[in-house]
Amino acid sequence: MAEIVAMKRSMEEGPVHASLSGGILTLTLANPPANALSIATMEALQGALDQARDDDAVRVVVLAAAGKVFCAGHDLKELTAHRADADRGRAFYEKTMRLCAGVMQSIVRLPKPVIAEVAGTATAAGCQLVASCDLAVATTEAMFATPGVNIGLFCSTPMVALSRNVSRKHAMEMLLTGEMIDATTAREFGLVNRVVPPEYLNQIVRKYAETIVSKSPLTLKIGKEAFYAQAEMGLSDAYDYAVKVMVENMMARDAEEGIKAFVEKRRPEWTGE
């Protein structure tokens, strides 16, 4: 808890604001109007995720944004400024893309569920950010796109997260056309879980988060890791792996307590062991 309190103080004026309540850590992109993923923003986001990883007070992470744009992707002005470098920006672009890839992988590998709360437009790396989260809830006004192709820059890194969340045809439609899709289409594609009126967004996200907080933290950690690991395996290997995970999960104290509580018709008391 002390780590998060300290983090909150240090991030109140930065590009990412942190707030912890009831086990739910809300990380808000706070650099409107674009909430672009500049180096400073990505470093702040990475730092917050790193601290949340080992803090037992954090059970669920919510990614939100201030303003009408969730995230417009990389800071194009920042990228363009480095064209004047001796290497025409190569080193800076390498740093930017690798930092972004690290943030996205940290979200997937975080042993706690991450929910995207999308109240506005999410494009390019911003769309990648949404796709990288475990769950995503969007308002009816939200829009999504991977528009790099429109400026001569194929969204190759956003493609990694996008193609792991929607069908290949839908991913290619977004990547090849660069056109915006509305929230309803994003839900049909599988990019978001729910589409809700703007006034209910925070309430619905909070309900998701509180439901997840009520579960065993150990079980969530085991399950999230296993979900992404088996998704990259062939069918036979996935089942072999899942059997081992299931057996180890059964040996956990929380599984013993959960089953016993179910039989006894009472609420389980989780210990995280």
TrEMBL record:
State the species of origin: Aquibium carbonis
One GO term under biological process is: fatty acid metabolic process
The record ties this protein, via PANTHER family, to: ENOYL-COA HYDRATASE DOMAIN-CONTAINING PROTEIN 3, MITOCHONDRIAL, PTHR43602
Family per record: Belongs to the enoyl-CoA hydratase/isomerase family.
Known function:
May play a role in fatty acid biosynthesis and insulin sensitivity.
For whether the record's keyword set contains Lipid metabolism, the answer is: yes
Q: Annotated Gene Ontology MF terms?
A: hydro-lyase activity
Q: What protein does this entry describe?
A: Enoyl-CoA hydratase domain-containing protein 3, mitochondrial
- Source superkingdom: Bacteria
Q: Which UniProt keywords apply?
A: Fatty acid metabolism, Lipid metabolism, Lyase, Transit peptide
